[in-house]
Amino acid sequence: MATDTQQQTPTVELVYAAALLELAQAGSGADDVREQMDDLAELIRTDPGLQKLLGSMVLSTTERSASIQRIFEGRVSDLVYRFLQVVNAKD
User: Fold this and answer.
1) Tell me, what's the pLDDT at 7?
2) Is the CB of residue 70 less than 8 Å from the CB of residue 59?
3) Cα–Cα nearest to 17, from 61, 89, 80, 71
4) Which long-range CB contacts under 8 A does 54-60 form with residues at least 24 apart?
5) Taking the model in full, what pTM does it have?
6) How far apart are CA 30 and CA 46, in angstroms?
7) pLDDT tier, 28 (very low <50, low <70, confident <90, very high otherwise)
């Protein structure tokens, strides 16, 4: 049985999502960021190569970061790009 503390502790995914939403609301707008994240999620779901790249434990964080830069920089908002880099840096 889960304790009250366990039920109230957010998952890492929820913490990152809340932080991204807060930054989006303070900046360019949550709708734009949500749309970009939806598009990114669809791209990851449908591109096995991208799934492997982003989930690779063979590549170092630095190597994945360089790939994220080549693929996404200038193609998504700066906020989404920085979010991807932070998530990568935190593994």
Assistant:
1) 64
2) no
3) 80
4) 54/88
5) 0.81
6) 24
7) low
Is the separation of the CB atoms in 71 and 80 below 8 Å? no
Q: What is the pLDDT of residues 55-86, one digit of tens each?
A: 888 999 999 999 999 999 999 999 999 999 99
Cβ partners under 8 Å of residue 68, min gap 6 = 54, 81, 84, 85, 88
First to last CA, the chain: 30
Tokens of 32: 């734009």
| Neighbour count for residue 43 (Cβ, 10 Å) | 13
Q: Hey, what are 42's tokens?
A: 């669809």
Identity of the amino acid at 38: D
Name the amino acid, one letter, at 45: R
| Beta carbons of 33 and 84 less than 8 angstroms apart | no
| Unique residue bearing structure tokens 């982003």 | 54
Q: Of 2, 31, 20, whose CA–CA distance to 80 is shortest? A: 20
